[in-house]
Design brief:
about 300 residues; eight-stranded parallel β-barrel; two-stranded antiparallel sheet; 9 helices; 12 strands; about 35% helix
């Protein structure tokens, strides 16, 4: 199982030194990857609740979020080996031609280290802020992936659908990875799970117990086979929102990776046991508030070593 970490990106006190230190320390600690999130703004009166919080509001730290693709470019220049991923980029927000140029550039300059986690988001406020109709997000997501794949494929390109028109052009900027970097979809609803089966190289969930994850992933693979795809080629990439507590969490419905060191270690093992291909450790603001970034990353590395899941 590959293990990655989320880069410091959210909240006050995060800047050049913290990002450089985190990227280099993650590579030195033999993590496999670093990842970024996508948050465009902080609605003061949200029209839809944030799914990951009890009160439906984004964490206050989300009033300051560094741009994800700029952050990955910066991390690419500071490292040599480690993979660079988005977990996740809200694909329908972006004009696909401009996005294709950014993604191909990052993959080229990094030597083929880019991994793409895509999602469709949940906030109508953010969609309104970027001028994209919220009700079109699913159709735009499908069309945008098809657009990216066509742009990455060859010298000659044209496009004409309900969203974008590009007259015939030539393009010689392609990703280092061919035919493209891997694409993982974050999805939970039946329609979006179908997108994983049809279009994705893998599934990127968060917040589900290991047993539930295993069941849903088996269903995704079955759907992929029905579409004539190789189900065993799909990868499972888990975002683990780690929140350590001094004492074990005993209440029913404990979220995975929330609890004592022993409970978190058990969760790590449980996801390894169901065949997780990659696990991303997100530390809920672990890097904020002046904490030493290198020390935080070493603590995460030690957590992994203590489970025997990482021998490096």
């Amino acid at each position: 199982m590959r293990i990655g970490i989320a880069l410091p990106q959210v909240g006050s006190g995060i800047g050049r030194n913290e990002v450089l230190t985190a990227a280099r320390a993650a590579e030195a600690a033999a993590f496999d990857s670093v990842w970024v999130v996508d948050r465009i703004c902080y609605p003061e009166q949200p029209r839809a609740p944030y799914p990951a919080s009890p009160d439906g509001r984004l964490p206050e730290s989300c009033t300051r979020v560094l741009d994800p693709l700029s952050l990955l470019t910066f991390a690419a220049a500071a490292t040599e080996r480690i993979r660079l991923g988005t977990s996740v980029l809200v694909l329908p927000w972006y004009p696909p031609l401009l996005l294709a140029r950014q993604l191909a550039t990052i993959d080229q300059l990094s030597g083929g280290r880019l991994a793409l986690g895509f999602g469709t988001g949940w906030s109508p406020d953010e969609y309104e802020a970027v001028g994209v109709p919220f009700r079109e997000r699913g159709r735009r997501a499908d069309a945008a992936q098809a657009f990216l794949e066509a742009w990455f494929a060859g010298d000659s390109f044209s496009w004409d659908d309900e969203f974008w028109t590009v007259a015939p052009v030539r393009n010689e900027l392609r990703p280092h990875q061919q035919p493209r970097p891997p694409i993982y979809w974050a999805a939970f609803a039946p329609r979006t799970l179908d997108r994983v089966a049809r279009l994705g190289d893998g599934w990127m969930p968060a917040g589900l117990p290991a047993a539930v994850t295993k069941t849903i992933f088996a269903q995704i693979r079955e759907r992929a086979a029905n579409y004539g795809r190789d189900p065993e080629a799909l990868e499972l990439v888990i975002r683990a929102n780690v929140l350590p507590t001094r004492r074990p969490v005993d209440k029913p419905g404990r979220m995975p990776f929330v609890g004592s060191h022993e409970q978190i270690a058990e969760d790590l093992q449980a996801f390894a046991d169901i065949g997780t291909d990659e696990l991303i450790l997100e530390s809920h603001g672990f890097f904020a508030g002046g904490k030493d970034v290198a020390t935080a990353i070493e603590a995460l590395a030690e957590l992994c070593r203590s489970t025997g899941l990482s021998a490096r």
